[in-house]
Predict the structure.
Amino acid sequence: MGTHDRSTKTAGAPARPAPAPTSLSTSVSARARFALDALEHLVSGFGTGILALVVLLWLAVTAAACLVGVGLVLLPSALHAVRAVADRERARLSRWGPEIIGPAPLPSGLRAAVTDRTVRREVCWVATHGVLGMFLGAVGLTLPLNAARDISFPLWWHLVPESAATAAAGWWTVRDWPGAFFVLLIGVLWLAVILLWMPALARLQARPGRRLLRPDDGTDLVLRVAELTATRAAALDAHAVELRRIERSLHDGTQNRLVAVTVLIGAARRALTRHPADAEAALDRAQDAAEQALAELRAVVRSILPPVLADRSLPDALTALAADCPVPCAIDADVPGRCAASVEATAYFVVAEALTNIAKHSGASRATVTVRRRDDRLRLTIHDDGRGGAQETGGSGLTGIRRRTEAHDGTMELASPAGGPTTLEVTLSCGL
């Protein structure tokens, strides 16, 4: 009934204009991007397929060795290898789609590890991906090579020996120009196959991993609840630390200045009747103390949310930070649009704390801050050429950076070998 009502038109009503058709170039461009993404996915899957095949062979050798009792010694290392390759595949698939949460650590006992449901599913994935995943990756690599070879065939076929003048599939030997241009048409056909079927190949390659490596139903929810609980605790801790910092700044700095202003004004009032010249000097000192208190109060306000961050953008705020850093610092920021205010404030805090650590502890001669936003993730990379050796337990503020980062469902990675250089990578979720 509703369908009939909606289809009825009022007499004399103007017809609704048909939507403009999507241009062919836009459609081809979109398919080309999808095909390139799928090719990258297939190539990375080919890499994990090789690792899975190596681990599969290792498992086969271990199983054969178990017949004589030696394999029991090799089995724990084989299972750890399976878990390592499976974790790499989880990370790879999480970059290309919904996140796959990793499982709990392997059970400590050998019997428990062998009978564990997650381990058995990982072994099944290794067997599948080591064969099917590597094969599909090889197909994904071969198709573009075939297309490039056949499309460029008319340019070089007469320069090679007759035995090599064949199409990529090697169906026949080309001896004239019509045959060469027919190979060119085959290359165009290869290109059409790539545009149409490459994403399907990538999805087929990823399907075993998404089916076998995901947690059991309900497990991901439990892990996510635990993760959010820890994140909430980190957010509360970071909030408490920030409140203590603000309170300490106001108590130790601004409050003391204001007390000094009050004392000096009282002294000036008493000196007005006895020594007017001393009153003027006391008022000058009170004015200086008031100006210092105002400057410190502004500094505290800026540390909460810098005005340049609120009025302009994150790259501008970071540029101002770099200008004030004692170590020469370059800012390379590519952040289209604005993130949430809390995310930008956290990014500002991370860079400010990192540059402070570099200036105090690293002995670096140069630092670089790189900021990129890709989809819903903001990635910060702070690099310096200092002496390295930075640790979270060294009182360098890195623990505070981690807490603030985790409060925004982010991650922090630190690479600081002795002798340098030091690289700090922080990823924040822009979806908050």
Remarks:
- The radius of gyration is 33 Å.
- Residues 327 and 359 are 6 Å apart (CA to CA).
- The longest strand covers residues 367-374.
- The beta strands are 329-334, 367-374, 377-384, 411-415, 422-429.
